[in-house]
Amino acid sequence: MFNGALSAIVTPFRDGEVDERALRDHIEWQIQSGVDGLVPCGSTGESATLTHDEHDRVIKITIEQTRRRVPVVAGTGSNSTAEAIRLTVSAREMGADGALMISPYYNKPTQEGIFRHYKMVSAAVDLPLIVYNIPGRTGSNIAPETFARLCELRNVVGVKEASGSMDQVSDIRRLCGDRLTILSGDDSLVVPIMALGGKGVIATISNVMPRETHDLAAAGLAGDFARARDLHYKMMPVMRALFIETNPIPVKQALAFMGRCANELRMPLCPMSAPAADRLRTAMKELKLI
């Protein structure tokens, strides 16, 4: 249902508020550049510091601006199951095509608790769900055996896998087969994950290089891994530079270098250090992005 290059879009701010004009312009550029889907209100979109009203507004703007040209997968995760249900119901009512739901963070549920969390959301909301596994942010890993249970739920259709473990990806694929679409959650691991049966990526770098990210995922889907590798190596310096500091700090700086949005973040995130920004600028200049 969801494959290729889905862009985990930033949330532009100006003077402390969501910059709706910059957001609409960014969405339009992404679509015109060939991305296969948009994911608002993920970690790249600074969902952790959006108010409830802002969260709903960003999703609504994305759906409005997209006009069904590509799927919109709204970020609706929470460490409160009741809140995750509320956010997912709201996204469905606004017309989202799916929901990206991070595994509950901070409270570190057991594998059984994780399963029950998604089971309750699945039962409450008729919307395709993509599970987001990112142990580095949540403090817990979703075991492959738990994914084998999750993919039996009626509307759990995919996973954004960001554990960084190829063993984990292999085990998910082995246990779930085609019942679960695997999407890379790490920009630098798209090629190996697709070689193991993944169907694309929910990417950060596509905010800056949307066309190239689409082309890389399309090459992987076509089985043309020689081209996918070439694109990977071309993009690698910028991929690395975008994660020198915590995402989305560098990608906001990159878009500011490109004149696409202000370099404004919500506290406690703050702008890049000068040496890191210089490394990012150098990598972008080498690819003539600025």
Question: Can you describe this structure?
Answer:
It is a single chain. A hairpin with a 2-residue loop joins strand 2 (13-14) and strand 3. The protein has twelve helices and ten strands. It has helices at residues 20-32, 52-66, 81-94, 111-124, 135-138, 144-150, 166-176, 190-195, 210-221, 225-241, 249-257, 274-286, and strands at residues 4-8, 13-14, 17-18, 37-39, 73-75, 98-102, 129-133, 156-161, 181-184, 200-203. The protein has an eight-stranded parallel sheet with strand order 4-1-10-9-8-7-6-5. Strands 2-3 form a two-stranded antiparallel ribbon.
In short:
The chain is of the alpha/beta class. 47% of the residues lie in helices and 13% in strands.
Major β-sheet strand ordering: 4-1-10-9-8-7-6-5
Quaternary form:
single chain
Rg, please? 18 Å
The N- to C-terminal Cα distance equals 35 Å
Query: Approximately what portion of the residues adopt beta-strand conformation?
Result: 5-15%
Q: For the residues shown, what is the average pLDDT? A: 97
> In sequence order, what are the helices and strands, one letter per element?
EEEHEHEHEHEHHEHEHEHHHH
Helix run count: 12
Structural class: alpha/beta
Low-confidence stretches: none
Largest sheet: 8 strands, parallel
What global shape is seen? globular
Which bin fits the share of residues in helices? 40-55%
> What is the number of E strands?
10
